[in-house]
Amino acid sequence: MPSTSLPIETGMLTVGEPLPFNIHTNDGTLLLREGMILYSQQQIYTLIERGSYTIPPSEEPETQRIDSLVHKIDDTFTRYMTHGINISRKLITLADDLEFYTRHNPDALIGIIHLRTDVKYSVIRAIQNTVLSVLMASKLGWEAKRITSMARAALSENIGLYPLQDELCKQNHELEEWQTTLIREHPKKAVKVLIGMGVRDRDWLSTVGYHHERMDGSGYMNGISGDAIPEEARILAIVDRYGAMITQRGERQASTPQEVLLAFIQPTDDTFNKYDQELSRLLIKEIGLYPPGTTVVLNNDETAIVSKRSEDPVSPEVISICDAYGDTMECPKHRDSRIRTYKIRKAVELDWSRHLNVDLIWDSGTEDICYASLFRFEDPNYV
Fold it and tell me: What is the model's pTM?
């Protein structure tokens, strides 16, 4: 048993209330995750009798724990690409962790997937898809088991395209014929790989297999259309397209979230008939046209980072970090973008990921940001 573990005792748990911590066996195996609800006193007695333990909450900022999770996903994908090992158990654990953090601190997760450019393309894309899928599925009121299958499918959807996916993101010329063939066959290959790893969850496999089908029948692998496509796959198709377009690939510059989201619902755009319109609008409603992590310029010429969503998709909470002259503020300021002076004028593409202490945005209050270094290097005035 880890030295930091404490035994579960009478009075620590309450029937009908969310668990305040994770519960483990004495060898560290996770039994129940923080936030789950115990429905009977007998469950509590059983946990105490089995010698279950809790590990006190870490003092480490949650964004640092999320960052650690990102690196675990990177390491897992790397080991699969390098050695071809069975990673199904790791996929389940990692997807479940992403689902938990998405529910617990959604703005931080959304912010991090829009800010991070310092990890492999395949990794950030998988995380983007998982986080956004979980957000949409939760809003639709799905039962927990269905959302969990959705998260696992989103994290593993491109396992049939590794390691080609990372190579393609750096490629500056048109696809070669063999690459096009592999891309069109990767949903089928992914399903085969997952089955070979022991995955038997039909919803998981179906979502992966159909995630490149399109509403107008122009997709692959079966060319089905409309409601014949499972709802899970329709969600994954939307978030997959979104993640691809906001991420730089080769010579193609990344689009802003606003540009990509509006394209989904513009009848004149060639994507309009390919994606579920109701679900596309749900994504916009869930993350806004300026999602957390987006860099924006305000009406007063300050440069800010979106920190929190709001009911209004065009007026999120922002933190100004550069003044109207482009100089970094000694004390970054929270701004209400509903106010005309601080209204968002436009989104811009700036790479903060290697320089910004994101835990000060999503783990601290205004006062903490004012008295701490928001940047990781001596001269932040690089913009």
Answer: 0.82
Structurally, at CATH architecture level, domain 62-287 sits in: Orthogonal Bundle (1.10)
Burial of 355 (0-12, 13-18, 19+ CB in 10 A): middle
Start and end residues for every CATH 1.10.3210.10 domain found in the chain: 62-287
> Do 127 and 374 contact (CB within 8 A), yes or no?
no
**Which tens digits make up the pLDDT trace of 311-325?**
999 999 999 989 999
Cα(138)–Cα(134) distance, integer angstroms:
6
